Amino acid sequence: MAPRPADWPSRVEVTGYWWPPRPDGWSPLAELADFLRAGPPPVFIGFGSMAPGEGERLSELVAAAAKRAGVRAVVQAGWAELSGGGDDLLAIGDVPHDWLFPRTAAVVHHAGAGTTGAALRAGVPAVPVPVMADQPFWADRLHRLQVAPRPVPFQDLDAENLAVAITACVTDPAPRRRAAELARRIVSEDGAGAVLAHVATLG
Length: 203
Fold this sequence. Notes:
Blueprint: H1 30-37, E1 43-45, H2 55-69, E2 73-76, E3 89-92, H3 97-100, E4 106-109, H4 113-122, E5 126-128, H5 135-144, H6 159-171, H7 173-187, H8 191-202
Parallel strand pairs: 1-2, 1-4, 2-3, 4-5
Helix pairs in contact: 2-6
């Protein structure tokens, strides 16, 4: 969901996403399925492989932000080892994004390319919290696509600004509508097929 750079050589193509398959026989843990059924769609909060060793601080911050925003939350442990629990917050391990994200109200994430794509594919708005490398680019792209509020850089993250961003996502219907439009376009792509077709022309 980014324009093709004008300085790319003609032989370099943009194919669209290609997605990994869901693990054979996978099904959600009963605890997660029960939590999803117990109330309105929660907000997903996870930072992937970012912030190892900051689990205690981030867990407290995330729990406080969810409470201030008045939302239920599913928190993915990730490398930071986030934790927490209660009636309105559930900590989980790895779960396929293609299964979980469509069941959420919004996705708070570090704006890595893969997670960004998975959230767009799910048709849900995002709160980007970029940490490093290409993540500020994708965070800005989500904002420009009108599916996210202004990014909250990780170094500036606190419970208050995270709660404000989450509230913006779940109370304004415009980002969800825009996310649904983009999801329909992404679903219609055949990125893997485009890769194979391009490779065939190189032979």
